[in-house]
Write a structure and sequence with these properties.
Blueprint: E1 2-3, E2 7-10, E3 19-23, H1 40-44, H2 51-54, H3 58-61, E4 65-68, H4 101-104, H5 129-158, E5 161-169, E6 183-186, H6 195-207, E7 212-214, H7 222-227, E8 234-242, E9 247-248, E10 253-254, H8 257-285
Parallel strand pairs: 3-4, 3-5, 5-8, 6-7
Antiparallel strand pairs: 1-2, 2-4, 6-8, 9-10
Helix pairs in contact: 6-8
């Protein structure tokens, strides 16, 4: 299923396991009403380019994949709905807002600044509350509605659900050293999934030869927080892949490493399907 310019929801004919994949930041369809003043090249740097392709074998393996088509810099599906930056608005927000530390850095629900290291403005204007509400109703909420629907369907069918929230990170991400991890897993310090899920994914990736870190520097943000409830067998884990594994960050083109990385993510999905099946059987036996 595709909703034009908003999202693509790829569902298998028959669900093979209680696993759901989503890629909220790989969108590159820029709405006509964006009205940004900064170069588009700046905005393109914020995309998790090609992540939906790296995990694209999911539906063929029997698990759904949801991908945003809109760019995160237009509105970020991985921020709370009320994480609205008051410095971006031309008039007071009519309801309650709860700006986070990310908003104060210009990186909230709707990005105000290019990046923390280069705090150049994205707009040469303020946004009206009506404009923000339009982005919420036309893009943000449909994405979350689709993701919640997939998770609920899967949970209803299997009695449990495991969710991989898929992202990419710059090779020179803040806080990472010369011996930086290739992949960072985030479970918000063990609160969004059973530790066995994090250990499973980390072990699979390490066996493939990747350097893996957990919760440093990325713990997971709104999506895994919102949909996780490990006590009720709802497990969400964020995964961040280093972009230099598969693309040239300057030219934004795929490198020969893309095919290898996609092959490994295909294997990860297969191994995680096996993990979720086993754990679903174990749940039924308890």
């Amino acid at each position: 299923m595709a909703e034009e310019k908003v999202l693509i929801c790829q569902k298998p004919a028959r669900a093979a396991a209680p696993l759901v994949l989503d890629s909220p930041h790989s969108g590159n369809v820029y709405p006509e009403d964006f009205g940004h003043a900064c170069p588009k090249e700046w905005l393109e740097e914020t995309e998790d380019a090609f992540v939906h392709e790296l995990f694209g074998s999911g539906p063929a393996q029997g698990v759904p994949l949801l991908s945003a088509l809109f760019p995160r810099c237009y509105i970020d599906a991985n921020r709370a709905e009320d994480d609205i930056d008051p410095l971006l608005l031309e008039a007071p927000w009519p309801g309650k807002i709860n700006p986070s530390a990310r908003s104060s850095m210009g990186m909230g629900l709707i990005r105000r600044l290019y990046k923390t290291a280069h705090p150049e403005p994205i707009y040469d204007r303020f946004l009206s509350p009506e404009e923000v509400e339009k982005r919420l109703s036309a893009y943000y909420r449909p994405y979350h509605s689709a993701l919640e629907g997939l998770l609920e369907e899967t949970y209803s069918a299997f009695g449990a659900v495991w969710h991989l929230n898929c992202h990419s990170m710059p090779a020179t991400a803040s806080g990472l050293t010369r011996h930086a991890p290739d992949i960072v897993l985030g479970d918000r310090d063990g609160t969004t999934c059973d530790a066995a899920f994090t250990r499973h994914v980390a072990a699979c990736l390490k066996q493939m030869g990747y350097r893996v870190a957990v919760n440093r520097p990325y713990k997971g943000v709104e999506i895994v927080r919102r949909y996780a409830d490990p006590a009720r067998n709802r497990h969400s884990l964020q995964i961040e892949l280093k972009r230099s594994l598969y693309m040239d960050e300057q030219t934004r083109r795929k490198t020969p490493g893309f095919a290898h990385t996609r092959q490994n993510m295909t294997l990860l999905i297969s191994q995680t399907i096996d993990f979720t099946r086993k754990n679903t059987i174990d749940l039924a036996a308890d």
